[in-house]
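pinned: reference chain
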Amino acid sequence: MLDTEPAAIEFSADWLRDIHRCIAGELFPDWAGGFRSTDVQVGAHLPPPAFEVPVQVRNFCLDLEERTRHVAGVESIAELLAWADWRFQWIHPFKDFNGRVGRILLVALAYRLGLPPLDPAAGNAERADYFAALRAADAGDSGPLKELWLVRLSG
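pinned: its structure tokens
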């Protein structure tokens, strides 16, 4: 990814599937790089049904591309990162490795936005706050997740 110019990174379903295939392909060659084909539940969250995943991912990528065109300042960057973080995990497009793919997506998004390298993973101390922020975003309140991203960006 770092061999690519930031502006040349295009978020798409194919890009996400390629990332998934790269990180999970050796372990799970039968399904790595493919969207999940079954319905799942992640804790209390019910992601969209499997048959909706391709459309949800396509719309996510189109929305992400458009949102990147309207970023101005640290507040809107934190808002964009929070939205991308939440929405990707909300869709939960893969059978497994969604967290890893999501973190790579966030690193690529930060790189595309010209940010210094950042670690999108919640540390052990932050994990409970991060999951609570995702649940709040599921309920329509992205504020806690945005605040977590503001802290990450300032650190």
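why pinned: The two ends are 23 Å apart (CA to CA). The chain has a mean pLDDT of 94.
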